[in-house]
Every structure is written in C-alpha cells, then in structure tokens.
Amino acid sequence: MMQGTVTVLGIETSCDETAAAVVRLTEGRVEVLSERVASQIEEHALYGGVVPEIAARVHVEKLDSLVKMAMYDAGIGWDGLSGIAATAGPGLIGGVMTGLSTAKAIALARGLPLIAVNHLEGHALSPRLANEVNFPYLLLLVSGGHCQFAFVEGVGRYTRLGSTIDDAVGEAFDKTAKLLALSGAGGPAVEREALQGDPEAVDLPRPLLDRQGLDMSFSGLKTAVRRAAEEKTLTPKRCADICASFQAAVADILAAKSARAMEIISERTDRRTFVTAGGVAANKTLRARLEAEAHRAGFHFFAPPLRWCTDNGAMIALAGAERLARGLTDPLDTAARARWPLDEASASAAPIYGAGKKGAKA
Ligand code: KG4
Ligand code: ZN
Fold first, then answer.
1. pTM (2 decimals)?
2. Residue range 297-307, pLDDT digits in tens
3. How many other CB atoms sit within 10 Å of the CB of residue 53?
C-alpha cells in the first residue's frame, strides 16, 4: 500500500546527537520541512569518548525542546503529521530508549502510528534526502559504529556484501584523534590536521587489500598509527603527517574495496549507482576518492550533504515516511535494541563479532 503524501516527525538519539526533523514524502518526492540537531561534543569532551549514561541524560534534557522547535519550524501543527518515527536501535541503549519512549508518548497522545526505525536504514536511505536516487544501489555505509557494503534493492531490502571484521572506520578516526590529543570531534579534527600533512610521510598498512571479497579491517591500521605516534616527538608537523597518512590509507582501502564492490554489482544489475553514507562519508578526501572510483567504473555517485552524513533526524523521518507510505508501522510495545543488523538474514547466518561503540558491526 502506498499513500500519496505522508508527513513524519523523526527522532534520533542513538549516540551523541539529539535530533528531530519533519519530512514530507509525496509520491517519492522528499521535502525536509524542519530539522534540529544538538551535539553533545562538549558534554563528553572531558572523558575522551561518549559516556553512555551522560548521553542518555543529555538526550532527556534536550529532546522535548528540540521536538517543539522542529514542530514549530515545520509550521504544520500536530494535526499535520501522519506518523512519529524514532530510532529504535542499534545504539547506546539508554539513548535509544529516550527517543523511542518520547515517540511512543507522542504517538499515543496524538493517536498517530509509530514507526520504529533501524538507524542503519536511516543512513542507507539518507542519499535520497537530497537527490533522486533510485533503487537498486550499492551502499558503502561508514560511520562511528559501522562499516559495510550493502546492496539496497528497496525500502527494507538490504543485502550485506561485506563489512569490517573488527573496528568501524569512524572509530579508527576517533582513536587516531585521541592518540594525537586533537581537540573537538575526532573525524573532523583528523581531516583538518591532514590538510597540513604529507600523505606519504608515514608508511601505514592497508589491511586485507590482498584478500578476495569485501571484508575490511581497521584494527591493524589503528595499531600502526599508535606506533607512529610513539616513535618520534609529536611535533605539529609530525601530527599532521600522521593524520594525512592515516586518511590516505583509509581512502585507499575503501576505494579499492568499492571498485571491487562495483564489479560485483555490475554482474547483478544494469543500474549503476553507488552511494556512500554515514558520518565518515562527510570526509572530503574520501568523497573525492570514491567519486573518482565510481566514475572510473561507469557508476553514478551520490553522497548526502555533510549535515545528513552525520547523525540527524531527517534521515530517521525519511525512513519512517518511506515505511509508513508502505503501511509498515510498529506496535507501541516495540523494544529498543542495542544491536540490530541492517540485513538480519545475513547477520544471523554469518555473524560478525566486534566490540565497537555500538556493538556488532553487522
Ligand atoms: O553516522 P555517525 O554520526 O554516527 C554513527 O552512526 O556512528 O558517524 C560518526 C562518526 C564518528 O566516528 C566521526 O569521527 C566520523 O563519523 N566523522 C568523520 C568526519 N565527520 C564525522 N570521519 C572522517 N571525516 C569527517 N569529516
Ligand atoms: Zn549514525
């Protein structure tokens, strides 16, 4: 069942961003009516990483007013909504519960359907916020908790093609920033430093490039970065060189695996579209490399604008709207999930264990 127009409030609280947005979907056309994001970078800065209990408490403090502001900005009133969507996992469980409970309360009070969204589905569909990206497409999802290739054939139809066997790529950016004592958010800090550095100055490994398939590994790279950081005095120049070399290694790994993924996809479909999404897709060096790789392979390339790469409410509202338009809603007793793979069938057939920020990098 496809409805003509659906307008959905989306809530995101799975990690350290509290976000709310209103998205309208009309026959496949997307309009972001409003969006608000509050980052918790400052609240966690002292601890060198996201502290789950603090994250959950700050979501509780900020969410009500963010939702009110997003609704005010949208200018449609509560009666203008067709449903309420929230991230129901995967993520830090306290935060996920905060957002999901808020969504349930609004849904109950307003008599609206609830849509429990998989955060990874939000990222997977996010390129459709800004561009008309038609199914099917090849997805490279790169974020703080996940790193995987998937074949996206439609809403709810995702096949995992390969993924990291250890750390997520965003985690490697965050660890590198921490090792080098860079201030601010990890990924953007490494990217900023890298601008001043020489990408060939430090010899770093490109794990698993010699191996068939689309699995990736970043833990060896992380160890090599630590060794490089301890080897010589960390002058500003050395620091910038390490960042530039690290970023180049990541870009090499992801570009090579993407080229392979596009070859595989070419055998399955004539539709040649490659998208990347997730926080690390905000990295400009990486975007440029992936775009070049896509064009070399004869693929169209899409990556969301930077604000929709990192966690945001618009992608959750869109995923909710896409599901609602197909009649997919969830009961009010739906539970929050710390772990929730995008492709549940592949994940249970061949589980990948890891201990990242968000658990299984399924
Ligand atoms: O998608 P996201 O906001 O949250 C998760 O779902 O995990 O991704 C956050 C990750 C963090 O590891 C962050 O360091 C990384 O994305 N990131 C970046 C950049 N901006 C954010 N990594 C590299 N370059 C960037 N510009
Ligand atoms: Zn995310």
1. 0.95
2. 999 999 999 99
3. 10
